[in-house]
Amino acid sequence: MKSLAPRRHPVALLLLMAVLVLAFAFEGSQPAHSHQDGRPGLYNAECPLAKVAAMHADGWSPPAPALGPPVDPAGVIVVAHHVWAPSPSTRFTDSRAPPLA
Amino acid sequence: MFDAALATLVAVWLIGGRAIYRGLDLDVFLVQATAILTFLFLSAAISIGPLSRLWTPAIRLVYFRRHLGVATWALAMSHAAVVMHYGNNWKPANVLEVLPGQKVAGIPFTLFGVGALVVLSAMALTSWDYFLHRWTPTRWKRLHMAVYAGYAFVVIHLTARYVGEPPVGWRFLIPFWTVACVVGALHLAASIKEVRADRPAAPVADGLILLGDFTLLPEGRATTAHAGDERVAVVRKSGTLYAVSNVCPHQHGPLGEGTVRAGYLECPWHGYQFDPRTGLGPPGFTDSVSRYELVSRGGRSYLRLDASGRPLVVAPPRPA
Known about the structure:
By secondary structure, chain A is mostly helical. Chain A has helices at about 10-30, 50-55.
């Protein structure tokens, strides 16, 4: 049989107060993190993701691998695999980063 | 009352935190604020059990544990929504885009957050008494042990998030790990206490096993005794000692840590009541607990065992 809830909550309120104090302490200990220019943060110029995004900017492409000797295509059996390839349209800045300007 | 306090805490945290930490952009603040409170709520929720075993007043917190758990899930959902909105533009594939250092065993830290959210969702959706009764308390509690996997996912999620992004935020990580270690230490300490208390007493002749000396047990109070591997709640009502199973049939709460209210031994977790003389609930309720035969000899109390060495269950009186 279920009775009424406990009438006094000093321990419960104590727990909640402790959680609140810890929450403020945690927020204060967070690394600086802002989108604004000139300030350290994940999405601005000092961010590693921004460097990654810069690599994906227009005109950038990975270094071309060294070419091997030419192969006669007629002598090669090509097996087409259905393999995954990264989408060229995917950029780190597409969703995560607001406009930098 | 407790739910109102929870809502007030969340409001104070969001409004007050925003007022104090104005330097952060709103989206950054919301992501961090929901993450921090989710972690702290979850830490508190899973610490209530061991804390109540180590510090008696904390047993009242057990009543609110499910409320805190569901609030944790709501905060986790809020965190996911904020991250998806501000950080991922609601594109699920973007969740996988993290810095190279933010992967654990090749898995992006974000997926650990997704894993935690799945676990918390399952816990919250099955937290109602309907599932408790349908699955039986034993199976329901076993399933809800998955909350520890969810907690591990949260710890990995936040650790990889901050360790993987230079410069490493030690000012956050050290107190964060400290809280996680305190949660682990509470569980360890409670386990040690339980194991020590479970040392069985040696059986004596005449099919009796010594429970202990309860002459100083006050009126209306209960305590826990051990008969072999069985825990027994010994309670004094109207001057007489009674012994019933220590396991409340609702959620396996410790009846030996309850008190007598209105003539019934009341479980400290959720207030389920049983008459210590019969083991039955109040009129109109069908749930009951096993009642055992106590034998007093020379100031000490013994429990009678059956042929298999288990406490002999006394059949409740037939209804008139």
